[in-house]
Structure formats: C-alpha cells, structure tokens
Amino acid sequence: MTASINDVARAAGVSASTVSRALRGRTGVSDEVRDKIAVVAAQLGYTASRSAASLASGRTFTIGVLVPYVGRWFFGTVLDAAERVFSAAGYDVLLYNLGSPEIRKRFFTRLPVRKRVDAVLSLLIPDDEESAALRSLGVPLATTVGGTRPGFTVVGIDDRAGTESAVRHLVNLGHRRIGMISGASGPLHWTTPIERRNAYLDVLADAGIEHDPALEADGDYTVEGGERAMTELLAVSRPPTAVYAQSDEMAMGALRALRRHRLRVPEDVSVVGFDDHELADVVGLTTVAQPVADQGAEAARLLLRQLDEPGAEPPTEQVQMPIRLVLRETTAPPRPRGPQ
Amino acid sequence: MTASINDVARAAGVSASTVSRALRGRTGVSDEVRDKIAVVAAQLGYTASRSAASLASGRTFTIGVLVPYVGRWFFGTVLDAAERVFSAAGYDVLLYNLGSPEIRKRFFTRLPVRKRVDAVLSLLIPDDEESAALRSLGVPLATTVGGTRPGFTVVGIDDRAGTESAVRHLVNLGHRRIGMISGASGPLHWTTPIERRNAYLDVLADAGIEHDPALEADGDYTVEGGERAMTELLAVSRPPTAVYAQSDEMAMGALRALRRHRLRVPEDVSVVGFDDHELADVVGLTTVAQPVADQGAEAARLLLRQLDEPGAEPPTEQVQMPIRLVLRETTAPPRPRGPQ
DNA sequence: AATCTGAACGCAAACGCTTGCGCAACAAGG
DNA sequence: CCTTGTTGCGCAAGCGTTTGCGTTCAGATT
C-alpha cells in the first residue's frame, strides 16, 4: 500500500539502514547519498511507521496527557499550550479524558499508556494509588495541579498568596462579612481548595474578623454549583456583603444568582474570583489572574528536558508561577449599614 | 523491563499465539486455558505493546483528531464528547492542535498521522489540497464543521435555519436596523459564515428591510473581535438597534463594547448570539443553541461504525443536528424612535 | 610499499506482537 | 473400525523499523 523503508532503499540504491540513518539525521552518511535519499523519499511520499520505529527503538515520541474534562476552559487552555510545546519538539499527544470515576478507574487499572508514551502530563490529581501506578510506567511525570508528590514535576501557583490578595482586597474595601464559595467536593487529595480555605481563614483572623461557618458554601467548581452556593449564602440570617469564589466559573454562577435575586454587583454584594477566565473580562469580574497557558507550556518544557537528559533522576521539581489581582467592576466598598 | 507476551506464555505453559488469542477474546482457546492466561497476565501486569500489535495487525486503535484551537469552548466541548465515545470503544485519541498556519502547513505536508491512525476526525475545515492529503491516508474521515466534501462524513447543523430564527426574532420584535457581526476572516473554504450571511440577507429582504453594508462588521470569532466589530457598528451614522452575532463569543465581545459605551442591553441595543456557549446563560444572552457535544459524539460514532464495517465505501454522509432559539435577556423591542 | 585509520555503508538480529496453516486429539456418523 | 469434522493449540513467517557490528575502501602515516 504505502511505501516502506525498503522501497526507498531500493529506489535509492542503498540499504534500509542507510535510509534510516539518513532520514533521521544520523552521522555516517555522505552528503550526496543523504540528498539522494531525501529526494527519493519525498517523491515516494515515505513516512516512517511510528509503530515499527518505536518497536525497534523503544521510544514512542508520544506524550500522554491526562485531563479531567477537556471542555472546561482551564484544562483546555493548559492542554492547548502543552500540545504546542510537545508538537514543536516532534512529539505527539495522546489524550485521555478521565472525567467520570469509572473511566478514571479503568484507566489506572488497565494503564493503556504503558509502552505507549515517553512521558505523562497529568492535569488531574492522582491519589496515592494512582500516582504509584503512573510511577510504575517508568517515564517522566508532571502535573500542573495540586500539591507536590514524589516522582512528579509540578508547576503551579501560590494558592495562599492568591487567596490572600483576593480576600485582603475585600477586607481593605471595608467588608467584614466575607463569604467563600469553595470547590471542596472535588477529588480528594486535592490540596488547592484546602490551601485556599486556610489562606481565607488566616486573612480573616488577621483582620480580626470572626469566622462564620455559615458563610462557606460548596460550589463544585462549576457555574451551576456557584449559583447554588451563592443562593445558600443569601439565605443565611446575615448574608455576606462580599464573596470570594475559588474559581471564576463559580464566581460567574454567583453573579447569576445575585442577578436573579435582584441584587446589584458590586453595590449590594462584591464578588472576587480566581483564575482570570477568558470571559472574566466580559462580565467585569475582579479576580486573581494565574498564567494558565504558561503553566501548561512550562510543564511540557520540563518534561521534554527530562527526556533529553535521560541520566538525571526524576527531580520532584516544583515551579511556582506568578499570580496577580486584577481589579475590575465586581468589587466595591460595602454599603453603609442601613437600619437592617 | 516490563513483561512481554512470551513471559506470559511461558508462565502459563502455553504458546504466545494462544496468549494473544486468549487475551483478545478470539475463539480457539478453551475456557480453562483462557482463565489461566488471564490470571497469569494480571499478576505479571502484562499489557500488549500497541506498537508491536499495530505493526503486526495493521490496525492502530488510534483516532487522529485535528483541532484549530483546543482552548476554545466549542472545540474543547466537541473534542471532549468525541474522546469519550472513542475511548469507550477502546480507541485512543491522538490530538493535533493546528492553530497557526505554519503548524497547519507542516502537518499536512508531513502528515504525521500516516500509518498512525485508523481514522481522522477533523474539527477544522480542510481546503481542497488538505482534504486530498487526508483522503490519501486511506482511512475513514469525518468533520463537524463546514460544508460537505467528498470522502468526509460530516455532522453539522442547519446554519440557514439557525440564522433565520435569530434574525427573524429581531425582526418580529420590531427592529429595522439590524447589524451583523460575522466571522468572515476565518479560514477560507469555510461555508458557515457565508451561509449565515446569506440567511441574514434573506430574512431582511423578506421583511422588506433594505440591506445596509455599513451594518456588517467582522468579529473574527473572538471576544476581542466582537468588541471591535460592535464598536465599529456604533460609529456609523445611524447605528443598529439590534445585532446578530455569528457566535456567542463575538456576542459577548459586543456586550462588553456596549457596556463601555454606556449603552444598555436590551433597552438601547438588542444582541443575539449563536452557539449557546456554556456562559451564555450567565450573561443572559439570547442565542441560537446548537448541540455541540452531541455533534462530537455523533461524528465519533459514525467513524466507529465505518471502522466496524470495512466493506462499505466512505459514504460522504451528512447529518444535521437540531438547533433552537433560546430567549434570554439581551433582546427586546427597539425603543420608540426619539427626536434624533 | 605496507600499514593504519576513519568514514560510509551493508548485514542481520532484534523489537513484541498477529495470524495463516498444520497437526494432534477427540467426537460423531457410517 | 474407519472416515470425516471440529476443536484447541503450536509453529513460524511476517509487520517495518533501529542498531551493533563487520566490511570495504580511500587517504594518511610510516
């Protein structure tokens, strides 16, 4: 059907091994033979079979990327950036969408990436068992989310600092009743919601504000969850005058809930999010910006570096990317206290 | 390093061919031997090498998916749904992010998917040359965007009907100056913007409204482009009282532009979008909903069906998914004409 | 002129599977 | 009891590369 390396070899009057060396830029081939082979290969439309090549060489030139949900902006953006880096380096990307628990479980028990990839980038937080499974692959590993874990290169952000800047901003505006919409019901072993919560509590304590557990609600990291959570917060006896949402998507859900309750933002309630979603600007959301695409690209680069230096041991590296508070239109000082 | 089929064969006291047949559920293996092999394979942690398997069988159990920009909601959502279908059927997904023209060109000249995939799902519109290149792969092809083309199964929507329902809605509300923000500067050979434009013109003509070329602006399918386009439309001598944006992202850009100009939606200007973006609901955008995820899933299913029936020729099939107008809060009758 | 040294290239053995074919062993039919 | 099928399994030939090693040969060194 399609041309093989032997067809090229025959047409060029050389051996298959010479063709292989020539096309991959190895030494030991004279310039004229190399050129000749290049010409012949081009006119035969020859491409080396990856299956055969990886069977023989042991390298697949393929990276496995694990994603909880490709459709979500954050993951899509990270994936996008990572893919660019990988493909520029000649690597292909095998995508695994591990949304549901069953699919996820199946993936980690069968481990279909075994013998298929040279490295794995995980955009989801593997629990201990899962990360052991990944380590058993014997390839470099990286992740862009969650805390550090042995064997993984992780690039992330300073969740504490981000949260602090957001909540402190609300405090500085004069708010005293500050709610939080968190993503606690996400996967276990995910340190992000916990760190952000701790930072939130610390800032409140620092400001001498007593913590009211009724002012925390779970938003599940989705728009709908954020809406539900905000609705809950509005139902408490003394509702918050400001809300810190642990993600922009939840913040947007909160905005929707507020609009449905005919409350004005920021006059009645201030809202601050986290991520700087591409549409945060559209809705004027004040938020903590993190370099999402950069994290994907950086993780990809670190992985490639490990592939280039096969000697070095997996360095459990940790990279922190900068965050910054972006002020827009959803935060303002609280209204002067009315008669209730 | 990791167990091979021969290790399993030896440990189970059978030949490698029997292991192969047993593990893949082929006939010609007694139940007891099959069980024995399953046990041994499990405790050895054996997974067949895909490289070796596809080299020997000619099948890769891999689907190539071509995407212009994974980070964009539409494509991320289609990809997400398609991947679920593929992986449920035992296929892996190779992702190619073909954002920039150079990358795209490189892809189609080198065609790295050759001998690597059993089928290709393209979320971008190949021009004639590109689609010829894809056909040369000799595998089933499908796309979820753009018009029909030989050799491709395409699942899409009725762009005409969608646009008509949107523009007619504005007409019915009483609008006479109806602008359009289009995505014309996208890739050539893309029929979508053209069809939508034609439908827009037809509805206007039907309603006896004269078409004003100054009321059309290019929004490049992005939020920023939509904002620019809306700004242009506001600058014409008699600005529109309503705008039809060919995508929700451009519509959101338009909303931002309107807010910056201190114009109220829908009181001063009505806006209707297209797609039903996940956040359209958050901003209350009236829009034409299309089943984005369903399109990805359906395209994937059709591809798999072709893989199961190798006999049938590529059927240049065309599937139309339903659309519907979703009324929210960005459309209303025009203001009664003031003295200006 | 004999020897040595690289560079350029071919040989052939992997790599780990799949699969057509052949061969027992055994059951059923005459 | 001898055929004719059927079932269960092993043999071995690929699949298309890569790569260690061996060979050849031109030019440099004695």
TrEMBL record, chains A, B:
Query: What's the short name of a Pfam family annotated to this entry?
Result: LacI
Q: Which residues form a coiled coil?
A: none
Gene Ontology MF term list: DNA binding
> Cross-referenced SUPFAM superfamilies, in alphabetical order?
lambda repressor-like DNA-binding domains, Periplasmic binding protein-like I
SMART domains in alphabetical order: HTH_LACI (SM00354)
Q: Which CDD domains match?
A: HTH_LacI, PBP1_LacI_sugar_binding-like
- Any idea where the HTH lacI-type domain is? 3-57
This protein's UniProt keywords: DNA-binding, Transcription, Transcription regulation
Matching entries from PROSITE patterns are given as:
HTH_LACI_1 (PS00356), HTH_LACI_2 (PS50932)
Q: Which domain of life is it from?
A: Bacteria
Annotated protein name in UniProt: LacI family DNA-binding transcriptional regulator
